[in-house]
């Protein structure tokens, strides 16, 4: 197991962002930066044992400063959409920034994805390597109440697992809903579309939404709809949606010991199983990536539908839906959440 640190780039204010390379003894390599708590790269062996890129991302800092698509970012304080950027807590109405039409999206313009996180710890062990990052979000940032101390951990094990952990404490009642926004393309890291990917989602229900992407409050069964991924299938194979998804799935209740989702790509043999502790999973197929977004290498471009996201989290607009799982965090409590990515192939 090995952990390396190097300078990734300099922010406009002169602060330095670092890049960390985590490697295990079985060929896996994960790169991440403390800018945005961002996973920039994952190299996974294919069925022939050849390492290849499976994430959309960049090899230097500069594109991340202007990128609007949350490539590989840590998302918070609240992932997904909050209607009209408003919520009520303990009798007080809070107005958040509105950065996606009338909605508040992914923590706002200066959410966790645009923060330079502090390096809390770098750890090398016999069976794992880990980077711990911390951020202190002040009361009123983007409209959120409470000073929030957040820790995000990235641990690569010798069993080809990447475990992302989230913890937060607050000095005042607030709302928290964190996740990670990796775009996967198991074939080639975004040089082709995701059309040949197969997906299983451990969810018998989903939350329909209105024209602004806000859930109606209903929870409907997936059976006989394009949202039925209860058996692994090609993401383009069923119903009129084809590959155009940006939907929250209500995960079947488990304690994180059953996969929330499994993604597979046949030509490479690569498979990623995702385990998580949250009640929902946002499945997004990269529709809003605009044409000719700068790619990882000179002359390459990311296009719409060249990467997909599987984001364990609370449901969208949960602060305004009493019947949805609560996102409220109080001073005597600790927010805790994990996402475990298990990487395998057909060798």
Describe this structure as you would to a colleague:
The protein is mainly beta. The protein has one helix at 62-66; strands spanning 2-10, 16-23, 29-33, 38-45, 51-53, 73-75, 81-82, 86-89, 92-95, 104-105, 118-124, 128-137, 148-157, 161-170, 174-175, 179-181, 197-201, 203-206, 220-221, 233-234, 246-251, 261-265, 270-276, 280-284, 293-294, 301-302, 309-313, 328-329, 335-344. The strands form 8 sheets. It has a 9-stranded antiparallel beta sheet, with no helix packed on it. Strands 1-2-3-4-5 form a 5-stranded antiparallel beta sheet, with no helix packed on it. It has a 5-stranded antiparallel beta sheet with strand order 19-18-21-24-27, with no helix packed on it. The model has no long low-confidence stretch (mean pLDDT 95).
List keywords for this structure.
globular; five-stranded antiparallel β-sheet; mainly beta; 347 residues; 1 helix; 42% strand; nine-stranded antiparallel β-sheet
Quick overview:
The protein has 347 residues and is mainly beta.
Topology of this protein?
Elements: E1 2-10, E2 16-23, E3 29-33, E4 38-45, E5 51-53, H1 62-66, E6 73-75, E7 81-82, E8 86-89, E9 92-95, E10 104-105, E11 118-124, E12 128-137, E13 148-157, E14 161-170, E15 174-175, E16 179-181, E17 197-201, E18 203-206, E19 220-221, E20 233-234, E21 246-251, E22 261-265, E23 270-276, E24 280-284, E25 293-294, E26 301-302, E27 309-313, E28 328-329, E29 335-344
Antiparallel strand pairs: 1-2, 2-3, 3-4, 4-5, 6-16, 7-10, 8-9, 11-12, 12-13, 13-14, 14-29, 15-28, 17-20, 17-22, 18-19, 18-21, 21-24, 22-23, 23-29, 24-27, 25-26
């Amino acid at each position: 197991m090995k952990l390396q640190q190097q300078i990734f780039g300099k922010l406009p204010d002169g602060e330095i962002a670092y890049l960390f390379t985590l490697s295990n003894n079985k060929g896996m390599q994960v790169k991440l930066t403390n800018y945005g708590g961002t996973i920039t790269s994952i190299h996974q062996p294919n069925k022939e044992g050849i390492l290849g890129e499976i994430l959309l991302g960049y090899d230097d800092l500069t594109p991340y400063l202007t990128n609007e698509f949350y490539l590989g970012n840590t998302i918070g304080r609240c992932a997904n959409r909050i209607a009209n950027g408003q919520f009520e807590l303990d009798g007080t109405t809070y107005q958040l920034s509105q950065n996606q039409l009338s909605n508040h999206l992914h923590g706002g313009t200066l959410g966790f994805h645009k923060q330079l996180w502090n390096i809390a710890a770098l750890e090398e062990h016999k069976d794992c390597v880990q980077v711990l990052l911390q951020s202190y979000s002040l009361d009123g940032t983007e409209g959120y109440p409470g000073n929030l101390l957040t820790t995000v951990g990235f641990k690569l094990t010798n069993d080809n697992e990447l475990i992302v952990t989230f913890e937060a404490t607050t000095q005042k009642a607030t709302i928290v809903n964190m996740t990670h926004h990796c775009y996967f393309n198991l074939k080639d890291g975004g040089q082709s579309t995701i059309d040949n990917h197969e997906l299983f989602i451990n969810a018998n229900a989903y939350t329909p939404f209105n024209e602004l992407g806000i859930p109606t409050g209903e929870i409907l069964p997936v059976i006989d709809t394009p949202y039925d991924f209860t058996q692994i299938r090609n993401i383009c194979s069923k119903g009129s949606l084809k590959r155009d998804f940006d939907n929250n799935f209500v995960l079947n209740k488990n304690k994180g010991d059953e996969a929330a989702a499994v993604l597979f790509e046949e030509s490479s043999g690569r498979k990623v199983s995702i385990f998580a502790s949250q009640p929902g999973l946002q499945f997004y197929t990269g529709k809003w990536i605009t044409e000719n977004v700068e790619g990882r290498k000179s002359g390459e471009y990311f296009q719409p539908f060249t990467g997909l996201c599987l984001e364990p989290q609370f449901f969208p607009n949960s602060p305004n839906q009493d019947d949805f799982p609560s996102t409220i965090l109080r001073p005597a409590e600790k927010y805790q959440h994990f996402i475990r990515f298990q990487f395998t192939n057909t060798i």
